[in-house]
Amino acid sequence: xxxxxxxxxxxxxxxxxxxxxxxxxxxxxxxxxxxxxxxxxxxxxxxxxxxxxxxxxxxxxxxxxxxxxxxxxxxxxxxxxxxxxxxxxxxxxxxxxxxxxxxxxxxxxxxxxxxxxxxxxxxxxxxxxxxxxxxxxxxxxxxxxxxxxxxxxxxxxxxxxxxxxx
Length: 166
Description:
- The chain has 166 residues and is an alpha/beta fold.
- The protein contains two helices and eight strands, in the order H-E-E-E-E-E-E-E-E-H.
- The protein folds into two domains: 1-33; 35-133.
- An eight-stranded mixed β-sheet has the order 7-1-4-3-2-6-5-8, with no helix packed on it.
- It is extended and about 75 Å long.
């Protein structure tokens, strides 16, 4: 009988710890019910690297998350809905940018507050947006532009050298 009681207590402790991990994982990944806040919308040219659940930050501090992403068939732009904490009041001329945590880091949404005395109301749209920039596109422009300039510089140098020799 004493052996069964010990097994039941150990089993209960294991289940309690497992439940604690599940709750912690849900909170850490944002899978739990949405906290109070208000929704804003923004329309981006590209939301590459961003998905539902991505952090929305202000001065590096998480103040919300992306709750929905969809393609607008009329404008062919990506419409994002973000949920911002109630205690964060954003001026109506604020900008929203898709930023990168670094060369190998993920992307997040950064809000840059404006200076207007009028704040955005729930459901309003942030008009000043900047979509994500593809690192591969930037590298190709850098490599392609550098190679074209180098080739142009070499041919100009050769013709100048040839005319001076003649």
